[in-house]
Design goal:
Blueprint: H1 3-17, H2 19-31, H3 36-43, H4 47-59, E1 63-68, E2 71-76, H5 78-82, H6 87-112, E3 115-116, H7 117-131, H8 140-152, E4 156-158, H9 212-222, E5 232-235, H10 237-264, H11 287-299, E6 313-314, H12 315-321, H13 330-342, E7 348-350, E8 358-361, H14 363-383, H15 385-397, H16 402-409, H17 413-425, E9 430-435, E10 445-450, H18 453-481, H19 483-501, H20 506-513, H21 518-557
Antiparallel strand pairs: 1-2, 3-5, 4-5, 6-8, 7-8, 9-10
Helix pairs in contact: 1-2, 1-18, 2-3, 2-4, 6-7, 6-8, 7-8, 10-11, 10-14, 14-15, 14-21, 16-17, 18-21
Amino acid sequence: MTQAEIKLCSLLLHEHFGEIVEKIGTQLLRAGGQALRGIAGGTGLLLDQVKKALCVLIQHNLATFRPRRGGVEYEAQCGRILRILRYPRYIYTAKTLYGDTGELIVEELLLNGQLTMSAVVRKVADRLTETMEDGKTMDYADVSSTFVRLVDTHFVQRCPLVPEGPQSPEVPPPPAPTLLSSDKDMYTVPRLSLVGKGKRRRSCEEEDGEPRVKKQKQEGESSEAPPDDGIYWQVNIDRFHQHFRDQAIVSAVANRMDQVGASEGLAPLGAEVPHPAALSFAPTPQTSSEIVRTMLRMSEVTTSSGAPYTQPLSSNEIFRSLPAGYNIVKQVLDQYLALLADDPLEFVGKSGDSGGGMYTVNLHKALASLATATLESVVEERFGSRCARIFRLLLRKKHLEQKQVEDFAMIPAKEAKEMLYKMLSESFVSLQEIPKTPDHAPSRTFYLYTVNVPAAARMLLHRCYKSVANLMERRQFETKENKRLLEKSQRVEAILASMQATGAEPAQLQEIEEMITAPERQQLETLKRNVNKIDASENQVDETIFVLESFIESTVKRP
């Protein structure tokens, strides 16, 4: 764990959970697993504060616990804390796939860490009802059906539970429970008859004159436990990452294969003449990417996130699973599959020793290609097109001497030497020494330049963490510098909202608006524009982080 990761985790915890949780999370990240007393001593906080902060971290799956040496040891999850940066992307993906209801379900689970299905359905139905007009309400059954769809596609999963069973009175209970998760029940939704509709919030007292808080307390005391009490759900982050990976692969195939055919006005079918039955068919410019998308969609639930390949699929299965209304004949599909399998990048390959008609998507090679393309882009942006030419040459030739680089890249010796040393100092290129004699004499040693893609990816990932941390600190600085103006703007907006609700005159509203002068409004617009740029930059850097992390994880998991 690097200092850049610890700093970024600390900023994320402070921004989302406050100072106390940030102190304890940082202490656990720096010191590793610690007991309760050790955490309190290291942070200088009270035991009660430490307990509450640990409950928050455990509730949001940011820390784990395990029994050790007669006590309980707590450990922060650095990788899980860094995923907070990607929460907006998870929510947007759920909205894209399952609409507003799916968006709010994922948002509630991320906000609360873990929730029962009945609680999620009730919260989401209430929030959707508040946005509806003409007094309409959201039915619990509609929210429940969307929740079931999210579970069926593995975007939401059960949390590990404490195993139930009789305990012997002679054996003392363990200091910490052992949480178990069953693969069989992880995506099994309990049968619940959730009947009801969403309710709107009331800011005033109830119709009978009894305060709302008091009435809710009385109702809570008399209400029974929900039917799914003890069954908690959480967002399956690995499934979202699998979806992002599939999207990146499909986009890469579209950029490489489909645009060529679209620009030339021809389908990339090779030199063979299609069957006469296929002459009336005009393939769309996205045919190759649509085939790969179909293959990934067929294997998205059956293939684990760390698998090197998708499940083998025959051309007949792919043909039957193409989207409805996608008019393509079987022979044209076979030609596209052959074209994809023969591509040098090998995103799609044939399965089996005989090279028969079973096709798979090579996920490891796809991630390696995406990471390599990211490195090439960074080199070109940072050092220029000529350095990028040398970088691509080293990727292709693997090992080259300086004289060979000059000759192959057709760059003068002085410039090539300067570019190589510049990339070497930035760790994009590495130097390998091969001595001809045991004394390692420079005159009898080969010095070969090469690109170690995993090492360069780790270096770039480290810089991305530092970039995101710098962006967050810059946003906090901008907000702090304009704190007084932001508070004034919020007060004016609150006064305007209350006056509009009471039916104030337009002249009065204009008078309130003039409380913020023209220079102050210009300053607010500048602040808003700067903060939006910072947020967009964070999202763009996070996309690079995702590609690099996925590639590094695939190299680690690869047998």
